[in-house]
């Protein structure tokens, strides 16, 4: 969204204040609460898995040397062995059969062939060992599988359920499904707008950031278009319905998320791709062994040693380590396949407000238009007038006054003017603060044109009907963004682009100093279209956003990254990776994590291949009995665990942050120069 935080802040106490508290506080605390157990459990599961393998291998080798396995095979009748094999391995056998019917070979296919060879050769202890390792590997894979996201249900829950409609000369509240095209809907202050439509009467300050991405609330009056799920913060409206439910802009957001999820291409595990060509090699070696030596046990040993469960765990164990370690560092990664995609990323598209910027307006300029007044006096008068206003810009004025050491006076006869501003009485004078509408025939000051050209929102201060000052507000860039974007370029990202629902001037003011392209005035369907466009060109696309209107693009992207601490729950659910704190350095960090992870996976696969090929040679020459061959399956697992455990340690950071420098980068200073430029200088 270009400004979910703006919506929360703007809606005041009742409409959105509580929601803001939930979004920021609860989301953050829950995220960290989930992160710590996940990280601890990831480390525990790795060590427990390694210890289990070590104990089993030692027991098998010892039992083989002492002849205990032969004695056990003679003591237990074969139907009991067969029952244990079938009962233990049935879930995996069913999956292997299903894959075979689809002409697909997986790592479990290889292990099942080894099991069949053990059963045919009568090597029952070896068969039980294979089933044990198969189930253990299957558990690890299941552990790393991502949980189904609830984005669509969460989006639907945000949709208005009822509307107040004018019927038979009165107002009646009806379910949203009963609202008809062309009817008149009445919206009172602080209410959510339930339909798309055009305002035919009334004035209100409307925060529609959830849909359009506008960082500032808009003033809605007759002829203004409004959207379902936006908020009428001040004033009231009468709206003629143009779309409702699934046909509304908000309804299309839900549909786009659904479509993006349904049409996402799955990412096949590297181990399964490896198995497709490894199986013929194993089959060839086993057949050659049997025809040359005629030794069925040696043939079974070939199949058993080659069909290591390490092929099944080479990828997921590395993913466990990375996901757990990332969670401790403030990154919630929803599945290993997103790490694989992120490692190949070539294009990054960005939301603006709440993502690149702080998501809340700040006063950047205070200009006195009266020679007898200073900027501090103008700001003090504006803060006094806005003292009891709920408008988000009013809060920005109060914050600026407080930071400048100014104490607002107690106003008299406070009056909110929906769609325009506020009016108060102070020491016998009338003070008005608001948009250009309050100028009432006065010409727009030349400085106002210059400030608007910079993409800033203006507030005019009048005393007794005469303009005495101008305040400019703008959403400011996060200070850590420029360095993070520079790191992304160093990591090989080919293209970075800003996608925003804000106007072109505001977008340019943010994008140009950063040296990135931008597209402005976008609705949710426009953002998802841009993502699809890059995907059609063969790019792996990363989308970074934080709000409801970003959800479709986050879901459609190969990897969607949500700014978790400030973003809406919908964006977090729709995205594949959530930043659990507002720290842009986490973006290049997660890219490095993804690449480290995939390098580790490739090493795991390579080590497993070399180990198994060596085992194939020894087994084919008769040096490995079946039970030892089955136990030898666990050999690569130790190497995989040791290699993957490196991912539990944080990687080295690059750039200025790694050296402990905390100063704001020069690019951020350029973007925010107006904050320090006129504001503090004029207050002196």
TrEMBL record:
Keywords (A to Z) from UniProt: ATP-binding, Cell membrane, Membrane, Metal-binding, Nucleotide-binding, Translocase, Transmembrane, Transmembrane helix
Catalytic activity, as annotated: Zn(2+)(in) + ATP + H2O = Zn(2+)(out) + ADP + phosphate + H(+)
Entries under InterPro entries matching the protein: ATPase_P-typ_cyto_dom_N, ATPase_P-typ_P_site, ATPase_P-typ_TM_dom_sf, ATPase_P-typ_transduc_dom_A_sf, ATPase_P-type_domA, Cation_Transport_ATPase_IB, HAD-like_sf, HAD_sf
Principal subcellular localisation of the protein: membrane
Location of the protein in the cell: Cell membrane; Membrane
Pfam families: E1-E2_ATPase, Hydrolase
Superkingdom of origin: Bacteria
The enzyme's E.C. designation: 7.2.2.12
Provenance organism: Ralstonia pickettii
Cellular component GO terms, alphabetical: plasma membrane
Lineage summary: Bacteria, Pseudomonadati, Pseudomonadota, Betaproteobacteria, Burkholderiales
Stated name of the protein: P-type Zn(2+) transporter
Transmembrane feature ranges: 44-63, 75-93, 113-134, 274-294, 300-327
Domain P-type ATPase A intervals: 158-258
């Amino acid at each position: 969204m270009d400004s979910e935080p703006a919506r929360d802040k703007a809606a005041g106490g009742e409409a959105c204040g509580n929601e803001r508290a939930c979004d920021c506080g609860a989301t953050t605390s829950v995220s960290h609460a989930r992160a710590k157990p996940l990280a601890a459990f990831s480390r525990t599961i790795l060590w427990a898995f390694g210890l289990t393998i070590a104990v089993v291998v030692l027991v098998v080798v010892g039992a083989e040397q002492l002849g205990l396995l032969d004695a056990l095979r003679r003591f237990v009748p074969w139907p009991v062995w067969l029952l244990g094999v079938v009962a233990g391995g049935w879930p995996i056998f069913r999956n292997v059969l299903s894959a075979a019917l689809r002409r697909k070979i997986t790592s479990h296919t290889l292990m099942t062939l080894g099991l069949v060879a053990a059963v045919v050769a009568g090597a029952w202890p070896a068969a039980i060992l294979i089933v044990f390792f198969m189930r253990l590997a299957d558990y690890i894979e299941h552990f790393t599988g991502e949980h189904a996201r609830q984005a669509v249900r969460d989006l639907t829950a945000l949709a208005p359920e009822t509307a107040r409609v004018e019927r038979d000369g009165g107002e009646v509240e009806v379910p949203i499904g009963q609202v008809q095209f062309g009817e008149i809907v009445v919206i009172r202050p602080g209410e959510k707008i339930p339909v798309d439509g055009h305002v035919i009467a009334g004035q209100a300050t409307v925060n529609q950031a959830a849909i359009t991405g506008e960082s500032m609330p808009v003033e809605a009056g007759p002829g203004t278009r409004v959207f379902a799920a936006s908020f009428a913060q001040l004033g009231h409206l009468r709206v003629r319905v143009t779309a409702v439910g699934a046909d509304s802009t908000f309804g299309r957001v839900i549909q786009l998320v659904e479509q993006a999820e349904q049409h996402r291409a799955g990412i096949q595990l590297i181990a399964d791709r490896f198995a497709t060509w490894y199986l013929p090699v194993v089959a060839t070696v086993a057949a050659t062994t049997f025809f040359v030596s005629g030794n069925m046990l040696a043939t079974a040993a070939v199949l058993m040693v080659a069909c290591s469960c390490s092929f099944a765990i080479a990828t997921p164990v590395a993913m466990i380590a990375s996901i757990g370690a990332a969670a401790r560092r403030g990154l919630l990664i929803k599945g290993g396949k997103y790490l694989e995609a992120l490692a190949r990323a070539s294009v990054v598209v960005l939301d603006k407000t709440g993502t690149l910027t702080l998501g809340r307006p700040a006063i950047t300029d205070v200009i006195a238009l009266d020679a007898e007044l200073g900027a501090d006096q103008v700001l003090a008068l504006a803060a006094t007038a806005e003292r009891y206003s709920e408008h988000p810009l009013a809060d920005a004025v109060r914050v600026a006054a407080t930071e400048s050491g100014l104490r607002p006076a107690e106003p008299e006869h406070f009056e909110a003017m929906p769609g325009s501003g506020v009016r108060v009485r102070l020491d016998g004078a009338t003070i008005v603060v608001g948009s250009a509408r309050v100028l009432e025939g006065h010409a727009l000051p030349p400085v106002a044109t210059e400030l608007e050209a910079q993409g800033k929102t203006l507030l005019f201060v009048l005393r007794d009907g005469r303009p005495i000052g101008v305040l400019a507000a703008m959403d400011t860039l996060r200070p850590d963004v420029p360095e993070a974007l520079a790191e992304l370029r160093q990591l090989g990202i080919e293209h970075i682009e800003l996608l925003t629902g804000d106007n072109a001037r505001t977008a340019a003011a943010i994008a140009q100093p950063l040296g990135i392209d931008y597209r402005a005035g976008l609705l949710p369907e426009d953002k998802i279209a841009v993502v699809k466009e890059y995907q059609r060109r063969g790019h792996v696309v990363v989308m970074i956003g934080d709000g409801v209107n970003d959800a479709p693009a986050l879901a459609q992207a190969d990897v969607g990254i949500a700014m978790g601490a400030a973003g809406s729950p919908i964006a977090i659910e729709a995205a594949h990776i959530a930043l659990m704190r507002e720290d842009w350095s986490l973006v290049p960090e997660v890219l490095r994590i993804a690449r480290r992870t995939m390098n580790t996976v490739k090493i795991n696969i390579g080590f497993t291949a070399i180990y198994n090929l060596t085992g194939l040679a020894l087994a084919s020459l008769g040096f490995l009995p079946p039970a030892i061959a089955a136990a030898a399956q666990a050999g690569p697992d130790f190497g995989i665990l040791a290699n993957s455990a490196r991912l539990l340690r944080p990687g080295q950071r690059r750039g200025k942050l790694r050296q402990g420098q905390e100063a704001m980068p020069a690019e951020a200073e350029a973007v925010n120069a107006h904050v320090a430029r006129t504001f503090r200088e004029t207050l002196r």
